Amino acid sequence: MALIKLKRGFDLNLKGQIKQESVADEAQALHYAVIPDDFTGVIPRMEKKPGEHVVAGDVLYHDKNDEKIKVTSPVSGTLAEVVRGDRRKILAVVIAPDNKGECKTFDTRSNPKELLLESGLWAMIRQRPYDIVPTTDVRPRDIFITAFDSSPLAPSLKMVLGEDEKYLGKAVEVLSTMTDGKVYLGCPKDYTIDDTGAETNTFVGPHPAGNAGVQIANIKPVNKGEVVWTLDVITAARIGKLFETGKVDYSTIVALTGIGVDSPCYVKAKMGCTLKSLLEGRLVNNDKEKRIISGNVLTGVKESLDGYLHAPYRHITVINEINKKDEFMGWASLSPKKYSIYRDFTTWIFGGRHKEVDLDAKINGGERAIVLSGEYDRMLPMDIYAEFLIKAIISFDIDKMEQLGIYEVAPEDFALAEYADTSKLELQRIVREGLDKMRAEMC
Predict the structure, then answer these.
(1) How does pLDDT run across 117-134, given as a tens digit for each residue?
(2) Mean of the pLDDT values across residues 12-29?
């Protein structure tokens, strides 16, 4: 077991953390939804029609470019609606549950790759480069599993995993057959998973230490022409459970956090449930407008109370939209309560950079030119020149993008840098668009 210490990054300590690790009963939602945008690289083509009955594990749609890649239903019930947007783009596939808990049974004796594809769990894995659902014709160099989430207010994956930890050994055994390299497991200092068969590495340091991209960069970086897979320990446990029981289990434990939640807690749920079923009766009752985020404050998706729990997340964050609309002197304020991760205000003298803070959704500024100050590098513990890479992506200089490490990164790796960016650039959007253009150009 190797110990890897990371110094770059920052732990954003927000108010609204979960104080006690008890789990509330499962939220019963009136509808569940699969959001195609959660599965980057997959263009949906429906296999089921509204009104048809489905059970958990039934195929809802497949990828237009590769019919082998399928996305399945998280619950049993009736396909209620296919929500479409501009140019008939599928925005959501909505299912009305029948609460019978019926599940499709798969043949665990079949080829592991075919079983992952048929069950829909293939779509839960990600591929570097491009941070997409893996293509079916490439064998990965290595596979990386991360066992912790270091983002603000993130749930404990040990708590979310629970008794399903026993399936990790089977998952590693299955995944080992799908690569000629190794299966790596990245753990935090306080939670080491033994006897899985994977090569375990312990990471110590601030966020984004839990990001798969950061762990890959500090173990065995991705070079041009190489492909690796990434997944979290919850997805790995689902894979192990599938091969042990023959059924796909989309149940999970969701963390409800943030200053807008009355009593932050863990709640049992299923992937794709409505946010209303999770948050109803649990929000702080005051006159402040709230922002509901499916995920964490850095990478999550803004949703309404009528929205859904997106597939990659086991986390809901609720913060205030704006605490103070008009602030005396704004960014030039000398108030000791003013917060910054830099030493721009007097707060740092009293240790305020690491105290619990109530941050709202206000951007505090507008987009401006990039200043090569090294602030991206301080937030990204990877051996790349982040600021120069962003400039290369904006100008779409393919040669420079390759030289500067485009194949190693994903949008989430730049989330903290985006928060710290004095230029107020949408770095995650820039990186996502750069990866998409790169893929269209190279593939």
Answers:
(1) 999 999 999 999 999 999
(2) 90
Query: Is this structure's pTM higher than 0.70?
Result: yes
Coil, strand, or helix at residue 229? strand
pLDDT value at residue 17:
95
- Cis bond before residue 112 (omega within 30° of 0): no
- Indicate the average pLDDT of the chain: 92
Backbone angles phi, psi at 299, to 5 degrees: -120, -5
Tokens for 156? 């404990």
Residue 352's pLDDT is: 64
Q: Are 234 and 193 in contact (CB under 8 A)?
A: no
Answer yes or no: are the C-beta atoms of 267 and 23 closer than 8 Å: yes
* Structure token digits, residue 295: 């995920």
Between the CA of residue 420 and those of 224, 265, 365, what are the distances in Å? 29, 28, 12
DSSP per-residue codes, 139-193: --SEEEEE----STTPPPHHHHHGGGGGGHHHHHHHHHTT-SS-EEEEEETT---
